[in-house]
Amino acid sequence: MARKQVFLSYAKEDSRRVRRLYNMLIKGGLDVWFDEKSLKPGDSWKEVAVKAIHSSDYFIAVLSSRSVNKRGFVQREIREALDILDTYPPGDVYLIPVRLDRCSPSHKRLKGLNWVNLYRGWKDEVKKIINVCLHEPVSAVKKSRSRLHTDGVYQSPTEHYAYRYYYLRFLSDKTVLAVSSDWSPANIAPYFTKQNPYVSVGKYSLRGLELCFSTRRSSGIIEYNGLVGEKSLMLKKHSKINGHRDIHEFKFKKVKALTPDNDKSET
């Protein structure tokens, strides 16, 4: 039987103590995804981390008073894990919050979960984690919830686009639509069609959680590739127009009033 995989999420300030936790979990029989050990030279670490979150059976969020309010990718990891947790039936275990000291988590939803408190005694508290991960049945819904939605749009954060959103829409015939606008998802929906001359059109390829496509504008082509999550996309963007490269997260927004191309989610 394959060993249960655990994703270890933490802030760099806590690296030394997290290495200790990693070693104890490995000795306890778990397969632990830990960036210091799991990333290969040349990996696109953000993409690899998101994929590992979705392929792991459990997610351990390690927090301390030094890192609990820190901004950065660790917060994005926790949000991704909370989105996955939303798909689990009540009572199923996926996200395990761990405190290195008496800190208070910034995410309100974490406060509703039973915490492991390493400051009370590492040996006994780590044993709790190992027992849950080895003996708790893994939810049948765990990874199957990651999918590309076609009943809404994907929206970029505004800060990357000069106070304009960048929208993506995927259709079940493998067509992808793209447009830039400062409108809301509901307002853009009636005009987000293949027939609109201001909308860029392309074809997408989906293999497992790996997504690849390009869109064509009058000025040139923009290429994308990345990973599909439960309610988001993590995409690398390469503009053939000006050579610019970047990585962005697109959040899914369900829209009821999509025009002619309405269809259901692709699972």
For the largest beta-sheet, the strand count, sense and barrel status come to: 8 strands, antiparallel, barrel
Report the top-level CATH class of the largest domain: Alpha Beta
Indicate how many domains the architecture comprises: 2
How widely separated are the two ends?
27 Å
Structural class: alpha/beta
Report the CATH architecture of the largest domain.
3-Layer(aba) Sandwich
Uncertain segments? 262-267
Strand content: 25-35%
| CATH evolutionary superfamily of the largest domain | Toll/interleukin-1 receptor homology (TIR) domain
CATH overall fold name of the largest domain: Rossmann fold
Helix tally equals 6
* Shape, per Cα inertia axes: elongated
Arrangement of strands in the largest sheet? 6-7-8-9-10-11-12-13
* Whole-number mean pLDDT: 84
Task: Give the strand tally.
Answer: 13
Description:
With 267 residues, this protein is an alpha/beta fold. The protein folds into two domains: 5-135, 3-Layer(aba) Sandwich (Rossmann fold); 152-254, Calycin beta-barrel core domain (Lipocalin). The protein is built from six helices and 13 strands. The protein has helices spanning 15-27, 35-38, 45-55, 73-85, 122-135, 185-188, and strands spanning 5-9, 31-33, 58-63, 95-99, 116-117, 152-155, 165-170, 175-181, 200-207, 210-217, 220-228, 232-239, 245-254. The strands form two sheets. The chain has an eight-stranded antiparallel barrel. Strands 2-1-3-4-5 form a five-stranded parallel beta sheet, sandwiched between helices. Helix 3 (45-55) runs parallel beside helix 4 (73-85). The longest helix has 14 residues, at 122-135. It is elongated, with a radius of gyration of 20 Å.
